[in-house]
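Each field is set out as follows.
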Amino acid sequence: MNLQAASKDQLSAWEQELSAAYRTAQGKKLNLDLTRGKPSAEQLSLANALDGILNGDYSANGVDVRNYGGLDGLPEVRKLGAEIMDVPVENVLAGGNSSLTLMHQTVLVAAYFGLQGEASAWHNKGTMKFLCPVPGYDRHFSVCEHMGIEMVTAPMTATGPDMDQVEKMIAEDANIVGMWCVPKYSNPTGVVYSDDTVQRIAKLAKIAGEGFRVFWDNAYAVHDLVDEPVALASIHEASIAAGTEDSVIQFASTSKITFAGAGVAFMAASESNLKGIKHALSFMTIGPDKVNQLRHVKFFSENGALQAHMKKHAAIIKPRFASVLDHLQAAFGDSELGKWESPEGGYFISFDTLPGLAKDVVRMAGEAGVKLTPAGATFPYGKDPQDSNIRIAPTVPTVEQVDAAMEIFVLCVKLASVRQALAK
């Protein structure tokens, strides 16, 4: 379907044909949801052995995990966090079930209390800004909005954020206090940051204003769909080599590894940053859920258990990703109607329509029974300047449901594109 070469009559004929197919699709009254990157019930069941695994033994090296205390988390579970984030265990703090909670708390402390004393609080600058690679993760953006932090953007490329633009913006604006990063299988594009990108991010503190922090979200660090995934360079080692270890704070969790609502969250940071965040946490909690932490220690007690468990996840997710990519390739592989990445892991596939069509496609799909993430969600304030990016989250539906949803999605993209061409 070459819209540019098509005559008005051809476009009208296509529009009538596609409209008829769309009305038929609406008549099926589907109810399919591709909105959020949640594990499917099949994936969650992989961790059912957590239930009862302690068998009444609540002791971890003599510590009664049912009681208060242990702000750092259990040493044994911190080893799991160190494995996921590829950092020394002494740099790891283990918390509750949500890495988003840890991120929110860390931004709050850095912004209003200071990670290195009150004088280091970002709000002392007046205006606080975060640099956000786009398209990106909507919940990162929500944290900034909640804290009153202004967001500025830099485009994502096939190797990560556009570092020329990132470096220029940070060097020119000392009010940029932080930067969000999802370095492996970036949400939503699936991009893995290149070695050069990691090295350059590690050096940003040298040109940034005082107190600058990189928030390194390892949400998909072990979520590979291929046997030989691209390796992500260590931001920990890169920051030490650059002398900027205080500028990087890492996060991870088992939320998409074991139980999404009952996992363990991790934070990895320098001694100075950990001291600051633990001081603030001491006013918020007397310790995390160590019972759940011990459950995870037992669940992953054998060498290689984490890797073997993630291969089971991959076996479930991979057919769903393949369905999405097969439909996109068949429909748009030789046309200008859309662009997308083919990620080798993570939870999302990012699709770009022709400019100005994302909202229309999402609306039309919804009216045909397929719910998608709202257009614009992958940009700060929900405003995609091109109105083109759509995040597809295929993990929860069955493969058959993903197939059905993608038939509707492809139809909506084609119909919206033809109608746009006719309107010109």
Remarks:
- The chain has two domains: 8-43+307-423, 61-301.
- The two ends are 17 Å apart (CA to CA).
- The chain has a mean pLDDT of 97.
- The domain at 61-301 is CATH 3.40.640.10 (Aspartate Aminotransferase; domain 2).
